[in-house]
């Protein structure tokens, strides 16, 4: 830019002004003059790896991904499914996953040294805890066609995820309450719910506990629902959000962001105007689920009583049921009575702004 001395001091030529305005040097000054902010690059969302079991109870995750609730809270969530509970827990211990959506019993099992995951892969004592509630299990005891009562199950093969996990204990207690001893059933390990469903309809086992919507898929094929977890136990703590204390401490903002996004998805799901989209998400994400089955699944997931937990709080009586079953069946034997030993509500409170 060229300056010249004129009357009253230093002046700027018209040509100099034109040259200045067309240069990159002018941009900050123009922005200030017109009240414009210079562009600021937003921070990239933190990547959070979530591992879960197959099932319709993952609907809040799919909603939060679709609606941008996770992204709006600073996290980029990748969801994967586990073949069994041992793989899921080891994924947390080996830092291959950050958060798990799993049964509350899994937390208790590994904190108490009663789980099946390989302890040699851990360099420190387990530090798992549940940071939010999810549901009350959505458990249904489903058997092959023609097996309609517990008496019909005597001498049959029952599949479980792993012999030391809570759903195996739940099945054993259901059988015991209806006159069957452990020796009356032949128990085999078959992995996660999706695997047990596929084995059941393939004729590899006779009976298993399924979670929504796999019982709907099975009954559509003529399989029998003998009882449900609600009828058997009343209160039962099913899925919870699980992570390690070390990861939570180092990634507090990400954990709160995930929880807040999940909360927003739950609120969205319970709005009647969103029902059609929720059903479509189930059809898109659960193999074999028809629109009619998706409607039945939503009826269960979003039921006023017994559906997904709206405030993500913990069902303390349901936790006590889990502890009673584990005290009765788990090895090494322990009497477990403290529900609060395995939970931490501070992240849930922070997400809710409390």
Written description of the protein model:
The strands form three sheets. The chain has a five-stranded mixed beta sheet, sandwiched between helices. A five-stranded mixed beta sheet has the order 9-8-10-7-11, sandwiched between helices. Helix content is 41%, strand content 18%. It is an alpha/beta fold. Mean pLDDT is 89; it is low at 1-18 and 20-41.
Write a concise keyword list for the protein shown above.
16 helices, five-stranded mixed beta sheet, 12 strands, globular, alpha/beta, 354 residues, 18% strand
How many H/I helices? 16
Average predicted confidence as pLDDT: 89
Q: Which range best describes the helical content: under 10%, 10-25%, 25-40%, 40-55%, 55-70% or over 70%?
A: 40-55%
- Strand arrangement, major sheet: 4-3-5-12-6
Looking at how many chains there are and whether they match, the oligomeric state comes to single chain
Main pleated sheet: 5 strands, mixed
Strand proportion, as a percent range, falls in 15-25%
Class inferred from helices and paired strands: alpha/beta
């Amino acid at each position: 830019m060229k300056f010249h001395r004129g009357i009253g001091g230093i002046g700027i030529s018209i040509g100099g002004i034109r040259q200045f305005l067309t240069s990159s040097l002018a941009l900050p000054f123009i922005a200030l003059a017109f009240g414009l902010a210079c562009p600021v690059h937003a921070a990239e969302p933190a990547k959070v790896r979530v591992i879960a079991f197959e099932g319709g109870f993952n609907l809040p995750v799919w909603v939060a991904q679709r609606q941008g609730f996770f992204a709006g809270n600073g996290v980029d969530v990748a969801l994967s499914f586990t073949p069994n509970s041992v793989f899921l827990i080891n994924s947390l211990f080996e830092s291959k996953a950050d958060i798990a959506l799993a049964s509350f019993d899994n937390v208790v099992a590994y904190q108490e040294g009663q789980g099946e995951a390989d302890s040699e892969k851990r360099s420190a004592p387990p530090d798992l805890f549940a940071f939010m509630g999810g549901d009350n299990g959505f458990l249904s005891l489903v058997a092959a066609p023609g097996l309609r009562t517990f008496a019909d199950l005597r001498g049959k093969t029952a599949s479980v995820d792993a012999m030391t996990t809570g759903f195996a204990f739940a099945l054993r207690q259901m059988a015991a309450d209806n006159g069957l001893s452990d020796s009356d059933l032949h128990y085999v390990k078959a992995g996660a719910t999706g695997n047990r469903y596929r084995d059941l309809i393939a004729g590899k086992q006779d009976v298993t506990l399924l979670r929504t919507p796999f019982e709907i898929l099975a009954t559509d094929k003529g399989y029998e629902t003998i009882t449900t977890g609600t009828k058997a136990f009343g209160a039962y703590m099913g899925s919870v959000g699980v992570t390690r204390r070390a990861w939570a401490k180092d990634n507090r903002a990400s954990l709160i962001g995930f929880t807040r996004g999940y909360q927003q998805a739950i609120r969205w799901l319970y709005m009647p105007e969103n029902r059609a989209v929720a059903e479509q998400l189930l059809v898109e994400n659960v193999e074999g689920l028809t629109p009619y089955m998706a409607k039945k699944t939503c009826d269960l997931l979003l039921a006023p009583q017994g559906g997904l937990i709206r405030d993500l709080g913990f069902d303390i009586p349901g936790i006590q049921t889990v502890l009673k079953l584990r005290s009765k069946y788990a090895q090494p034997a322990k009497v477990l009575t403290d529900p609060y030993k395995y939970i931490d509500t501070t992240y849930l409170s922070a997400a809710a702004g409390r």
